[in-house]
């Protein structure tokens, strides 16, 4: 009977997400013509990326995270990082075992690495606290603490997603575009160089210049003299170009950093957060804008599922691999990690906090992946297929895992 009560408590928040997702799917039907057009979804994605997501992260963190809570919750960034590292490692195994096509490898790695650490915990954890008979004590205290934990989870996840997963997808998408460019350039060079003597002479002069450069750089023994400093600088330059450090500071990442700054620095809290704060209207406006982020992102998931219905049969092995990683292997590993941390006294004894740490291992792929693939214009259809399958399974697996996690921490 106790387990049945926990199951009902866990089911209600998942149903809320499912209902909003279904609404997004209906809005994407041609009959309604609201989110059915590609431009409409792309425009909403852009608004989410530049406006809703940073406002949501900034407003939630500024209100709920303090310097004291940061010290108490230090294990959460490590826990989230472990979900990304272990998920990416398991994703690499899926890529190798399933022989995933090159253009889908970045997407598969991203889906296995990044869970939905944003809107799902922010909906599920406070909603669990509001349920009658919730196992975490007083509803108001539970709701306040749950909001703080979920906000920090969302901020950390946002930083990792837009710094790690964003660059994984970007690197693989750039490899694809480079391969296309190489193929096109080879085709055009074969057709022009054979018939254009000017191109032949230019090519010869370029080869002569390279040979002259090689002679200047070699010593009497024929070995190239390159200092260690030059090698290191070259490697740093290549790494910076590959990472594109500007991409680390996506709008949501900047919002997370600003929110943490406001929450942690006392003078900023007094000006923006506390009762009768002189600049409190700014925080209120930010929260109002951010509140639109969760339903907008969830509606986009539902709208993008329409694409997934058309190509589900083609990607079954890949989808099965991702589902096994995210809903079976990762949660089991997560139980071992969190229970081990509790045993060694690394986590403070709050069942709600422990529940969220476990939940981070059992979430479906991040909604931001849909935004990222649309920003790069790569694997959008396949991403919709994966989202359709994983979020359909999440309605059942997330309810079962949430029930088991609540039973485990009490």
Automatic annotation (TrEMBL):
**GO MF annotation list:** transmembrane transporter activity
Similarity remark: Belongs to the auxin efflux carrier (TC 2.A.69.2) family.
Please give the organism. Medicago truncatula (Barrel medic)
Residue ranges crossing the lipid bilayer per the database entry: 6-32, 44-62, 74-95, 148-169, 247-268, 288-306, 318-346, 352-376, 388-409
Q: Which InterPro entries match?
A: Mem_transp_PIN-like, PILS1/3/4/5/7
Q: Topology in the membrane?
A: Multi-pass membrane protein
Residue spans making up a coiled coil are none
GO biological process, alphabetically ordered: auxin-activated signaling pathway; endoplasmic reticulum to cytosol auxin transport
Name one cellular component (GO) term: membrane
Question: Is Membrane included in the keywords of this UniProt record?
Answer: yes
Query: Where does the UniProt annotation place the signal sequence?
Result: none
PANTHER family documented for this protein: AUXIN EFFLUX CARRIER FAMILY PROTEIN (PTHR31651:SF44), PTHR31651
A Pfam family of this chain: Mem_trans
Q: Which UniProt keywords apply?
A: Auxin signaling pathway, Endoplasmic reticulum, Membrane, Transmembrane, Transmembrane helix, Transport
Asked if the Swiss-Prot or TrEMBL record annotates the protein with the keyword Oxidoreductase, the reply is no
Its name, as the record gives it, is: Auxin efflux carrier family protein
Location relative to the cell: Endoplasmic reticulum membrane
Q: What does this protein do?
A: Involved in cellular auxin homeostasis by regulating auxin metabolism. Regulates intracellular auxin accumulation at the endoplasmic reticulum and thus auxin availability for nuclear auxin signaling.
């Amino acid at each position: 009977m106790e387990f049945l009560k926990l199951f009902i408590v866990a089911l209600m928040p998942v149903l809320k997400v499912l209902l909003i997702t279904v609404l997004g799917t209906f809005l994407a039907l041609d009959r309604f013509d609201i989110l059915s057009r590609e431009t409409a979804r792309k425009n909403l994605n852009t608004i989410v990326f530049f406006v809703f997501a940073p406002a949501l992260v900034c407003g939630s963190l500024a209100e709920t995270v303090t310097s004291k809570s940061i010290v108490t919750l230090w294990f959460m960034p490590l826990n989230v990082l472990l979900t990304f590292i272990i998920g990416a490692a398991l994703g690499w195994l899926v890529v190798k075992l399933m022989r995933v096509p090159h253009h889908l490898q970045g997407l598969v790695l991203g889906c296995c690495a990044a869970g939905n650490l944003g809107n799902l915990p922010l909906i599920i954890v406070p909603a669990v606290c509001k349920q009658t008979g919730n196992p975490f004590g007083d509803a108001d205290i539970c709701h306040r603490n749950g909001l703080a934990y979920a906000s920090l989870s969302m901020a950390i996840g946002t930083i990792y997603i837009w710094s790690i997963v964003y660059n994984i997808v970007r690197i693989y998408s750039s490899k694809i575009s480079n391969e296309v460019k190489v193929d096109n350039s080879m085709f055009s060079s074969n057709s022009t160089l054979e018939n254009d003597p000017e191109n032949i002479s230019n090519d010869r002069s370029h080869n002569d210049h390279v040979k002259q450069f090689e002679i200047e750089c070699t010593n009497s023994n024929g070995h190239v003299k390159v200092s260690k400093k030059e090698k290191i600088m070259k490697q740093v330059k290549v790494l910076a170009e590959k990472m594109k450090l500007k991409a680390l500071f996506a709008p949501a990442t900047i919002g997370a950093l600003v929110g943490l700054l406001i929450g942690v620095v006392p003078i900023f809290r007094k000006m923006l957060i506390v009762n009768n704060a002189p600049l409190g209207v700014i925080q209120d406006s930010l929260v109002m804008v951010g509140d639109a982020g969760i339903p907008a992102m969830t509606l986009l998931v539902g709208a993008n599922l329409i694409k997934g219905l058309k190509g589900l049969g083609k990607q079954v092995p890949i989808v099965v691999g991702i589902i096994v990683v995210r809903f079976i292997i990762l949660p089991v590993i997560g139980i071992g990690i969190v229970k081990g941390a509790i045993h060694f006294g690394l986590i403070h004894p709050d069942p709600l906090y422990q529940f969220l740490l476990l939940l981070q291992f059992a979430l479906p792929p991040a909604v931001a992946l849909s935004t990222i693939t649309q920003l790069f214009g790569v694997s959008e259809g396949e991403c919709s297929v994966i989202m359709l399958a994983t979020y359909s399974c999440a309605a059942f697996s997330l309810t079962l895992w949430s029930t088991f996690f609540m039973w485990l921490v009490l």
